[in-house]
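Structure first, sequence second, as always.
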């Protein structure tokens, strides 16, 4: 059974992030896309998203490797929801290797040419709820 085209798009985007090929990475996003940079911080549109990825690469000392574990894609019409186990490997400031896992949610829309474009990139998934509650609890 072949994998869903959205899975292939996500894996190609992960490779572009690791290679810091941010121009190619923007091909995976719709013009009106939103990236959750961190809870409470959004990048809107390709220019802001590209700038955010440059800052993310700098933050992680140009060492971040992104890959996907388990993934479910639910497609309805021209929209697809991808629920993913996103795995991050990076070098910490002290030089030691580190890993993180997130339960990401991504929303894709099928373009006019049949290509899948990311419209919402939320690598934090439902952790945004916890961050929101924390902000309200202050």
């Amino acid at each position: 059974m072949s994998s869903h085209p959205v899975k292939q798009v996500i894996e190609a985007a992960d490779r572009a992030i690791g290679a810091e090929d941010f121009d190619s990475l923007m091909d995976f996003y719709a013009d009106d896309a939103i990236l959750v940079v961190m809870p409470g911080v959004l990048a809107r549109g390709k220019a802001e998203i590209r700038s955010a990825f440059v800052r993310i690469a700098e933050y992680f000392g140009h060492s971040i490797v992104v890959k996907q574990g388990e993934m479910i894609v639910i497609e309805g019409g021209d929209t697809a929801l991808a629920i993913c186990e996103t795995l991050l490997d990076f070098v910490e400031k002290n030089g030691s290797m580190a890993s993180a896992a997130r339960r990401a949610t991504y929303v894709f829309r099928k373009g006019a040419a049949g290509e899948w474009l990311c419209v919402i990139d939320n690598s934090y998934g439902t952790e945004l709820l916890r961050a929101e509650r924390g902000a309200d609890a202050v």
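Margin note: The domain at 5-136 is CATH 3.10.450.50 (Nuclear Transport Factor 2; Chain: A,).
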